[in-house]
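Below is how a single chain appears once it has passed through the pipeline. First comes the sequence as given, then the structure the pipeline wrote out for it. We keep one example in the README because the format questions we get most often are answered faster by looking than by reading.
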Amino acid sequence: MRLGSPPGSISITYSQASLDHGLIRPRVPGMTTTQIPGQATMAVRPRRPFPRRLFDDLSRSEHLAVLELLHMAMHADQAEQVRGLFLQFQECFSFTSGMGGLIRLGPNRTFDRFHSVVNVGYPDDWLKLYCHHGWAERDPILKTTLRTPRTYHWREVCQRLASKQERDLVTVARRFGLHDGITTGSVDQDNRLLAFCSFATDQELDAKRFIPLVQYLGYYMLQAVRRTAPPIAPPIYRSIQTLSSRELTVLLWITTGKTNREIGTILGVRERTIRFHVENIFAKLDVMSRAQAIAVALEEGLPDLGGIAAVK
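Resulting structure:
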């Protein structure tokens, strides 16, 4: 796009892509696009200003690596190419493992489930434990990213942990070589899907150096993740209105923190009967844990316990 100017002014030519991405900055002091003597400067403000300071400390080879990664991210159209992108990033900047994908969000931006995850280096045994124990619901890094999507340094988040369960999870992760890392994420316009990517290392990393790098490149990596993921089926309709009276009663007691045994004692039935009701609740609400069932219940609103607790 050429920004025309009358005689005596300075005209600078840009490509549209350069303007959109902030990749070109005029070298004329005090001027952004076109300045006419005696008139105000016309400024073009890109959506994402070019992070010039980010590149001050990079070597020539690292500059080239960033350009190559940008090219890979902007042209990736298959999941295998995203895998290659993550592998290339961690090799260029000395991370030991990387992962990215989509997360379907539950009520109030809670975790629902993973979708189209690309793993490059995360230990299989760690992933099995993570899934088996449902740690996504108490992973402090994931919870923080879901609540306020942006770029996070793990060590900074972990320094603020108050829950023993969260601290224990971090301890286990470090035993698998996931000592420190960076996670970045963004939510779509419908607030239904979060795209994320994480890079881990077995030692402390230089946050001042790497967080701006992941923040900048992560924007394009997350676009690649979204672009290459297969379509996600719409969530199954789920409502507490589909529950029977007894199931609703059990769910109400679950929201108060009662165990299956305690609920069975309250209602005068065996624990295995309550377990059967809980399984039905999970199936009807399309959830996988008590926490997710509670989230659905709280989102829709529950009747007062005293009104139905005696229902048999």
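Strands lie at 97-105, 111-120, 151-153, 180-187, 193-201.

See the next section for the split statistics.
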